[in-house]
Structure formats: C-alpha cells, structure tokens
C-alpha cells in the first residue's frame, strides 16, 4: 500500500497541516478525473477518452475506488487498500466465492484488480503455479 498511498497521504497532511478530510481527497480525485478526461480534447465532440478508450468495467472500477481512496484521510494506507480489495472481490461478476484467506489472499485480490476483465483466467492459472512462484 505504501507505493500507492504513502506519498499521497504525506502531501495531503503536509499541505493541510494534518487537517485533511474525506471531502479534500474526493475533490482531488474529481479534479484528477476531469484532468484525465480532458487529456485528449475534442472540443466539438465532447470527451471521447472515457467513451472510446476505457472499457466500461474499467471506468466503473476506477470511479468505484474513489469511495475507498478518500478514506486515506482517516485510515491507514493498509486499511484502505485491504478494504478496497475485499469489496472488489465480493462485487466481482461472475462471483468468485468467499474472500480469500491465507498467504496468497492479497496476491489473488490484487490480481483480480490488475487483470480486470481477464481476472477469471488469471486466477484460475494462479492456482497452477508452483508454491515457490506463488510466494
């Protein structure tokens, strides 16, 4: 979680003198979303980037993550990431069963997020890895 959230959290705390709120984080992410949307402007056609270059499930998971990322204002990086990974697992379609436990649980949940629309095949193949490769 540190690589994802630590610097972001440090900047928020530094810039807001430890008085950050979930609304501050939400505003940052809405700004980032609009910045990303306008990265390839098409003034007369509107924003085509999200419509033509992001598969809908990818865009939906990106938007869904905002609710969790804004919790960085009150929770640790690890708490935020673990909760997000668990919810992504539970909400996956098709259902994948109960949230994984054990040594490979976090790896499986991260693979689900990274593989996105190919997650079922990736997770199936993960089970065929040697123990050494799973670690």
In short:
This protein has helices spanning 2-16, 22-37, 49-52, 56-69, 77-91, 105-115, 119-126, 131-134. By secondary structure, the protein is mainly alpha-helical. Helix 5 (77-91) packs across helix 6 and helix 6 packs antiparallel against helix 7 (119-126).
List keywords for this structure.
single chain; 8 helices; 135 residues; mainly alpha
What does this structure look like?
The chain is mainly alpha-helical and 135 residues long. 64% of the residues lie in helices and 0% in strands. Helix 4 (56-69) runs antiparallel to helix 5 (77-91). The longest helix has 16 residues, at 22-37. It is flat, with a radius of gyration of 17 Å. The two termini are 18 Å apart.
Sheet with most strands: none
Strand content: under 5%
- CA distance, first residue to last residue: 18 Å
Taken from the alpha-carbon principal axes, the silhouette is flat
Mean pLDDT across residues: 86
Please describe the topology of this protein.
Elements lengths: L1 H15 L5 H16 L11 H4 L3 H14 L7 H15 L13 H11 L3 H8 L4 H4 L1
Helix pairs in contact: 4-5, 5-6, 6-7
């Amino acid at each position: 979680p540190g690589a994802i959230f630590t610097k972001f959290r440090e900047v928020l705390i530094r810039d807001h003198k430890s008085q950050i709120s979930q609304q501050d984080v939400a505003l940052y992410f809405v700004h980032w979303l609009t910045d990303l949307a306008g990265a390839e402007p098409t003034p007369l056609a509107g924003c085509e980037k999200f419509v033509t270059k992001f598969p809908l499930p990818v865009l939906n998971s990106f938007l869904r993550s905002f609710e969790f990322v804004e919790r960085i204002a009150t929770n640790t990086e690890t708490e935020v990431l673990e909760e997000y990974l668990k919810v992504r697992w539970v909400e996956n379609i098709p259902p994948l069963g109960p949230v994984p436990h054990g040594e490979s649980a976090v790896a499986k949940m991260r693979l689900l997020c990274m593989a996105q629309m190919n997650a079922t095949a990736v997770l199936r193949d993960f089970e065929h890895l040697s123990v050494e490769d799973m670690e």
